[in-house]
Amino acid sequence: MTKAARALVLLTFLGVCATGASSEVRFKSYYSGIPDYESTTVFQAEPARSHLELRAAVRNAVTATVLCVRGQVKATVVAPHVFTTNICDPSSYSAIKTLLARLAPSLDPSRLGFRKVDLDEDGEPELLIEYVDLIGDDQVKDPYLSLWILRYDGTRYRPAYVGPFLVGQVWAQMPFGQTRGRTMVFVRHQNCTECHPWVYVSVVDFLRTPNGAMFAFSYAGDHKEFGHTIEYILPGMGHSVDAKVETRVLPPGAAGPHLVQQFRLADGNVEWWLFRCNDLKCDFEMSSGKLPAKHQSAWQSGKRL
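Now predict its structure.
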Protein backbone atom coordinates (compact mmCIF):
# COMPACT_ATOMS: atom_id res chain seq x y z
CA MET A 1 0.00 0.00 0.00
CA THR A 2 1.65 3.24 -1.13
CA LYS A 3 2.05 6.19 1.16
CA ALA A 4 -0.01 8.32 -1.21
CA ALA A 5 -2.89 5.90 -0.66
CA ARG A 6 -3.02 6.31 3.09
CA ALA A 7 -5.00 8.80 5.09
CA LEU A 8 -2.13 8.86 7.50
CA VAL A 9 -0.34 11.24 5.17
CA LEU A 10 -2.96 13.77 6.26
CA LEU A 11 -1.91 13.27 9.86
CA THR A 12 1.81 13.73 9.28
CA PHE A 13 2.11 17.24 10.62
CA LEU A 14 4.23 19.27 13.00
CA GLY A 15 2.32 19.02 16.27
CA VAL A 16 2.12 21.63 18.99
CA CYS A 17 1.51 19.95 22.35
CA ALA A 18 0.70 21.45 25.73
CA THR A 19 1.68 19.20 28.62
CA GLY A 20 -1.38 19.20 30.87
CA ALA A 21 0.22 20.03 34.23
CA SER A 22 1.87 23.20 32.98
CA SER A 23 1.71 25.73 30.17
CA GLU A 24 4.79 24.26 28.51
CA VAL A 25 4.45 23.89 24.75
CA ARG A 26 6.62 21.43 22.86
CA PHE A 27 6.97 20.87 19.14
CA LYS A 28 6.86 17.28 17.94
CA SER A 29 7.23 15.92 14.44
CA TYR A 30 4.76 13.07 14.37
CA TYR A 31 5.64 9.88 12.45
CA SER A 32 9.27 11.02 12.11
CA GLY A 33 11.83 8.30 12.70
CA ILE A 34 9.62 5.28 12.01
CA PRO A 35 11.22 2.65 9.75
CA ASP A 36 9.92 2.57 6.19
CA TYR A 37 8.24 -0.79 6.44
CA GLU A 38 6.57 -0.38 3.06
CA SER A 39 9.85 -0.61 1.19
CA THR A 40 11.78 -2.72 3.69
CA THR A 41 11.79 -6.52 3.54
CA VAL A 42 10.90 -7.27 7.15
CA PHE A 43 9.71 -10.87 6.70
CA GLN A 44 12.36 -12.95 4.95
CA ALA A 45 11.44 -15.32 2.11
CA GLU A 46 14.14 -17.79 3.17
CA PRO A 47 14.54 -20.32 4.55
CA ALA A 48 11.47 -21.95 3.02
CA ARG A 49 11.51 -24.57 5.76
CA SER A 50 10.69 -21.92 8.35
CA HIS A 51 7.60 -20.96 6.37
CA LEU A 52 6.47 -24.58 6.31
CA GLU A 53 7.04 -24.88 10.06
CA LEU A 54 5.13 -21.67 10.64
CA ARG A 55 2.22 -22.88 8.52
CA ALA A 56 2.02 -26.11 10.49
CA ALA A 57 2.14 -24.24 13.80
CA VAL A 58 -0.55 -21.77 12.73
CA ARG A 59 -2.88 -24.45 11.36
CA ASN A 60 -2.53 -26.52 14.54
CA ALA A 61 -3.05 -23.59 16.91
CA VAL A 62 -6.45 -23.68 18.61
CA THR A 63 -8.26 -20.34 18.75
CA ALA A 64 -10.30 -19.06 21.67
CA THR A 65 -13.52 -17.04 21.44
CA VAL A 66 -12.30 -14.68 24.20
CA LEU A 67 -9.00 -12.88 23.60
CA CYS A 68 -6.20 -13.24 26.13
CA VAL A 69 -3.33 -10.87 26.94
CA ARG A 70 0.20 -11.65 25.77
CA GLY A 71 2.35 -8.73 26.86
CA GLN A 72 2.36 -4.98 26.49
CA VAL A 73 4.49 -2.05 25.38
CA LYS A 74 4.66 0.93 27.73
CA ALA A 75 4.64 4.45 26.31
CA THR A 76 4.81 7.63 28.39
CA VAL A 77 1.76 9.91 28.15
CA VAL A 78 -0.74 7.31 26.87
CA ALA A 79 -1.79 3.92 28.17
CA PRO A 80 0.38 0.90 27.33
CA HIS A 81 -0.31 -0.97 24.12
CA VAL A 82 -1.68 -4.35 25.18
CA PHE A 83 -1.23 -7.34 22.89
CA THR A 84 -4.30 -9.56 22.79
CA THR A 85 -4.59 -12.80 20.88
CA ASN A 86 -6.99 -15.64 20.17
CA ILE A 87 -4.13 -18.16 20.51
CA CYS A 88 -4.30 -18.57 24.27
CA ASP A 89 -2.33 -21.80 24.68
CA PRO A 90 1.11 -20.61 25.86
CA SER A 91 3.10 -23.30 24.06
CA SER A 92 1.35 -22.69 20.72
CA TYR A 93 1.80 -18.94 21.03
CA SER A 94 5.48 -19.28 21.99
CA ALA A 95 6.20 -21.65 19.09
CA ILE A 96 4.69 -19.25 16.55
CA LYS A 97 6.49 -16.28 18.05
CA THR A 98 9.83 -18.09 17.84
CA LEU A 99 9.27 -18.80 14.14
CA LEU A 100 8.23 -15.19 13.48
CA ALA A 101 11.43 -13.97 15.16
CA ARG A 102 13.38 -16.19 12.76
CA LEU A 103 11.57 -14.80 9.71
CA ALA A 104 11.66 -11.16 10.90
CA PRO A 105 14.97 -10.77 12.76
CA SER A 106 14.87 -6.95 12.62
CA LEU A 107 11.72 -6.80 14.79
CA ASP A 108 11.96 -6.78 18.58
CA PRO A 109 9.92 -9.82 19.76
CA SER A 110 8.92 -7.99 22.95
CA ARG A 111 7.04 -5.44 20.83
CA LEU A 112 5.28 -7.96 18.59
CA GLY A 113 1.92 -9.72 18.90
CA PHE A 114 -0.37 -11.65 16.57
CA ARG A 115 -3.72 -13.33 16.01
CA LYS A 116 -4.89 -16.22 13.86
CA VAL A 117 -7.51 -15.10 11.33
CA ASP A 118 -9.13 -16.32 8.11
CA LEU A 119 -10.00 -13.13 6.28
CA ASP A 120 -11.31 -14.79 3.12
CA GLU A 121 -12.92 -17.82 4.81
CA ASP A 122 -11.05 -20.28 2.58
CA GLY A 123 -9.88 -22.52 5.40
CA GLU A 124 -6.24 -21.40 5.09
CA PRO A 125 -5.57 -19.18 8.14
CA GLU A 126 -3.54 -15.99 8.04
CA LEU A 127 -1.61 -14.25 10.81
CA LEU A 128 -2.46 -10.67 11.74
CA ILE A 129 0.78 -9.20 13.09
CA GLU A 130 0.95 -6.18 15.43
CA TYR A 131 4.21 -4.33 16.04
CA VAL A 132 4.78 -1.18 18.10
CA ASP A 133 7.53 1.37 17.54
CA LEU A 134 8.29 3.86 20.32
CA ILE A 135 9.25 7.18 18.76
CA GLY A 136 10.02 10.49 20.43
CA ASP A 137 12.57 12.24 22.59
CA ASP A 138 13.89 11.93 26.14
CA GLN A 139 10.60 13.24 27.56
CA VAL A 140 7.94 11.42 25.58
CA LYS A 141 7.85 8.15 23.64
CA ASP A 142 4.77 7.75 21.44
CA PRO A 143 3.54 4.30 20.34
CA TYR A 144 2.99 3.72 16.61
CA LEU A 145 1.25 0.54 15.53
CA SER A 146 2.21 -1.27 12.32
CA LEU A 147 0.17 -4.18 10.97
CA TRP A 148 0.95 -7.01 8.59
CA ILE A 149 -1.11 -9.86 7.27
CA LEU A 150 0.93 -12.96 6.54
CA ARG A 151 -0.89 -15.00 3.89
CA TYR A 152 0.32 -18.40 2.70
CA ASP A 153 0.59 -18.58 -1.10
CA GLY A 154 1.31 -22.29 -1.45
CA THR A 155 5.03 -22.14 -0.71
CA ARG A 156 5.64 -19.15 1.59
CA TYR A 157 3.91 -16.48 3.63
CA ARG A 158 3.55 -13.17 1.78
CA PRO A 159 3.22 -10.01 3.87
CA ALA A 160 0.86 -7.08 3.27
CA TYR A 161 1.53 -3.98 5.38
CA VAL A 162 -0.45 -0.98 6.63
CA GLY A 163 0.56 1.74 9.06
CA PRO A 164 1.84 3.39 11.08
CA PHE A 165 -1.08 4.31 13.34
CA LEU A 166 -0.44 6.66 16.27
CA VAL A 167 -1.80 5.00 19.45
CA GLY A 168 -3.25 2.36 17.15
CA GLN A 169 -5.43 -0.57 18.21
CA VAL A 170 -7.05 -3.38 16.26
CA TRP A 171 -10.62 -2.35 17.01
CA ALA A 172 -12.74 -4.90 15.15
CA GLN A 173 -12.75 -7.58 12.47
CA MET A 174 -15.93 -7.93 10.43
CA PRO A 175 -17.32 -7.95 6.87
CA PHE A 176 -17.79 -4.49 5.37
CA GLY A 177 -18.71 -2.82 2.09
CA GLN A 178 -19.91 -4.54 -1.03
CA THR A 179 -17.81 -7.70 -0.73
CA ARG A 180 -19.29 -10.70 1.05
CA GLY A 181 -17.21 -13.51 2.48
CA ARG A 182 -14.25 -11.30 3.37
CA THR A 183 -13.32 -9.84 6.75
CA MET A 184 -11.98 -6.31 7.04
CA VAL A 185 -9.75 -5.05 9.85
CA PHE A 186 -10.86 -1.89 11.68
CA VAL A 187 -8.06 0.13 13.31
CA ARG A 188 -8.62 2.81 15.95
CA HIS A 189 -5.99 5.56 16.16
CA GLN A 190 -5.55 9.25 16.98
CA ASN A 191 -3.78 12.32 15.66
CA CYS A 192 -1.76 13.37 18.72
CA THR A 193 -0.87 12.37 22.26
CA GLU A 194 -0.29 15.49 24.37
CA CYS A 195 -3.54 17.15 23.32
CA HIS A 196 -7.28 16.57 22.99
CA PRO A 197 -7.05 14.18 20.04
CA TRP A 198 -9.27 13.46 17.11
CA VAL A 199 -9.90 9.71 17.26
CA TYR A 200 -10.32 7.91 13.95
CA VAL A 201 -11.10 4.45 12.66
CA SER A 202 -9.61 3.17 9.40
CA VAL A 203 -10.92 0.15 7.51
CA VAL A 204 -8.36 -2.13 5.85
CA ASP A 205 -8.95 -4.73 3.15
CA PHE A 206 -5.69 -6.63 3.52
CA LEU A 207 -6.55 -9.08 0.75
CA ARG A 208 -7.03 -6.47 -1.96
CA THR A 209 -4.36 -7.14 -4.57
CA PRO A 210 -1.52 -6.49 -4.81
CA ASN A 211 -0.70 -5.16 -1.32
CA GLY A 212 -3.94 -4.38 0.45
CA ALA A 213 -6.01 -1.18 0.44
CA MET A 214 -7.93 1.15 2.74
CA PHE A 215 -11.49 2.42 2.39
CA ALA A 216 -11.90 6.16 1.80
CA PHE A 217 -14.71 8.29 3.28
CA SER A 218 -15.96 11.77 2.42
CA TYR A 219 -17.22 14.32 4.95
CA ALA A 220 -16.88 17.23 2.50
CA GLY A 221 -19.93 19.25 1.51
CA ASP A 222 -18.98 19.09 -2.17
CA HIS A 223 -18.35 15.32 -1.97
CA LYS A 224 -14.98 15.79 -3.65
CA GLU A 225 -12.52 15.17 -0.81
CA PHE A 226 -11.98 11.67 0.58
CA GLY A 227 -9.73 10.45 3.37
CA HIS A 228 -9.03 7.02 4.79
CA THR A 229 -10.54 7.73 8.20
CA ILE A 230 -13.93 7.55 9.90
CA GLU A 231 -14.53 10.31 12.45
CA TYR A 232 -14.97 8.24 15.60
CA ILE A 233 -14.52 10.61 18.56
CA LEU A 234 -14.35 14.39 18.18
CA PRO A 235 -12.54 16.45 20.82
CA GLY A 236 -14.59 19.64 20.56
CA MET A 237 -12.55 22.07 22.71
CA GLY A 238 -12.68 24.54 19.82
CA HIS A 239 -10.73 22.14 17.63
CA SER A 240 -13.65 20.34 15.96
CA VAL A 241 -17.40 19.88 16.11
CA ASP A 242 -18.56 19.37 19.69
CA ALA A 243 -20.60 16.21 19.27
CA LYS A 244 -21.05 12.69 20.55
CA VAL A 245 -20.68 10.19 17.73
CA GLU A 246 -22.11 6.70 17.42
CA THR A 247 -21.01 4.54 14.48
CA ARG A 248 -22.76 1.40 13.25
CA VAL A 249 -21.55 -1.03 10.59
CA LEU A 250 -24.16 -2.67 8.39
CA PRO A 251 -23.99 -6.10 6.74
CA PRO A 252 -22.21 -6.06 3.38
CA GLY A 253 -24.23 -5.78 0.19
CA ALA A 254 -24.16 -4.30 -3.28
CA ALA A 255 -26.39 -1.26 -2.67
CA GLY A 256 -25.74 -0.33 0.95
CA PRO A 257 -25.84 1.73 3.10
CA HIS A 258 -22.73 0.24 4.63
CA LEU A 259 -22.09 2.62 7.54
CA VAL A 260 -24.37 4.90 9.57
CA GLN A 261 -23.22 7.59 12.00
CA GLN A 262 -25.23 9.63 14.47
CA PHE A 263 -23.74 12.97 15.53
CA ARG A 264 -25.44 14.42 18.63
CA LEU A 265 -24.31 18.04 18.57
CA ALA A 266 -23.83 20.14 21.68
CA ASP A 267 -26.51 22.58 20.44
CA GLY A 268 -29.13 19.79 20.57
CA ASN A 269 -29.28 19.06 16.86
CA VAL A 270 -28.78 15.53 15.54
CA GLU A 271 -27.13 14.69 12.23
CA TRP A 272 -27.34 11.34 10.45
CA TRP A 273 -24.64 10.32 7.99
CA LEU A 274 -25.23 7.27 5.80
CA PHE A 275 -22.29 6.03 3.77
CA ARG A 276 -22.57 3.90 0.65
CA CYS A 277 -19.38 2.40 -0.70
CA ASN A 278 -18.60 1.96 -4.37
CA ASP A 279 -15.68 -0.42 -4.25
CA LEU A 280 -13.34 1.31 -1.74
CA LYS A 281 -14.86 4.80 -1.98
CA CYS A 282 -17.61 5.67 0.51
CA ASP A 283 -19.77 8.76 -0.03
CA PHE A 284 -22.47 10.08 2.29
CA GLU A 285 -26.08 11.14 2.46
CA MET A 286 -26.78 13.46 5.40
CA SER A 287 -30.00 14.48 7.15
CA SER A 288 -30.77 16.49 10.30
CA GLY A 289 -33.25 15.95 13.07
CA LYS A 290 -35.15 12.68 13.03
CA LEU A 291 -33.73 9.82 11.03
CA PRO A 292 -35.85 9.37 7.88
CA ALA A 293 -38.17 6.36 8.07
CA LYS A 294 -36.54 4.72 5.07
CA HIS A 295 -33.27 4.47 7.00
CA GLN A 296 -34.66 3.29 10.36
CA SER A 297 -34.11 -0.38 9.55
CA ALA A 298 -30.51 0.30 8.54
CA TRP A 299 -29.76 1.95 11.88
CA GLN A 300 -31.45 -0.83 13.84
CA SER A 301 -29.64 -3.60 11.94
CA GLY A 302 -26.20 -2.02 12.27
CA LYS A 303 -23.52 -3.31 14.61
CA ARG A 304 -22.12 -0.67 16.93
CA LEU A 305 -18.42 -0.13 16.21
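Residues 1-14, 19-23 have pLDDT under 50 and may be disordered.
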